[in-house]
Amino acid sequence: MEDCIFCQIVAGDIPSRTVYEDEHAFAFLDVNPLAPGHTLVIPKSHHETLGDLPAEESAALAAAVHEVAPAVEAGMDADATTVACNNGEAAGQEVPHVHYHVVPRYEGDGYGPIHALFDGPTDVSDDELDDIADDIGAALD
Ligand code: 5GP
Ligand code: ZN
Q1: Sheet order of strands, 100-105 included
Q2: What's the 52 CA to ligand 2 centre distance in angstroms?
Q3: Measured over all CA atoms, what is the biggest interatomic distance in the chain, rounded to whole angstroms?
Q4: Is residue 93 within 6 Å of ligand 1 at its C-beta?
Q5: What is the pLDDT of residues 103-140, one digit of tens each?
Q6: Catalytic residue at 101?
Q7: For the whole model, what pTM was predicted?
């Protein structure tokens, strides 16, 4: 995808501070970090969302996140990382090339969990939960 920023970064046409690279995956520092060490992990091939990724690419991306997240913690002397994917435009994804954010976290940094994105638990009845589980399960068949 020649007009994709992240494809251009993988190709080396846009410079980046690369921290990891393998056959399928690539990781580099976010240009507008939420915290120092904020790293993006992406597949080398262009796919917009997690569901678009072929299985092999998805497995390689997960393996890269598995390598990069502890390295971000070690390299940044962080206590933890928030690992998150804005998976689709409605979820806030701005760059339409699938990517995980890996953001260093520290005890007492005050930013909270991903749950803080939402107003809190929503009321769903047991019957609705049964139907929802059936619907999602059916979509996986
Ligand atoms: P999204 O909102 O799509 O989940 O996140 C996209 C991320 O890409 C943002 O955090 C943004 O700062 C980062 N980003 C956008 N353009 C560039 C770029 O040209 N270089 C780098 N390193 N990061 C970028
Ligand atoms: Zn791309």
Answers
A1: 18-21, 25-29, 39-43, 100-105, 80-84
A2: 12
A3: 53
A4: yes
A5: 999 999 999 999 999 998 899 999 999 999 999 999 99
A6: no
A7: 0.97
First to last CA, the chain: 31
- Residue nearest ligand 1's atom 12 by CA: 32
C-alpha distances in angstroms, 23 versus 61, 62, 86, 136?
A: 10, 13, 24, 32
39: Cβ below 6 Å to ligand 1? no
pLDDT tens digits, 64-84 = 999 999 999 999 999 999 999
Residue whose CA is closest, atom 17 of ligand 1?
Answer: 31
Please identify, by atom number, the ligand 1 atom nearest to the C-alpha of residue 17: 22
CA angle 11, 14, 19 (to 5 degrees): 75
Q: Are 81 and 45 in contact (CB under 8 A)?
A: no
The C-alpha atoms of residue 131 and residue 11 are separated, in whole angstroms, by 45
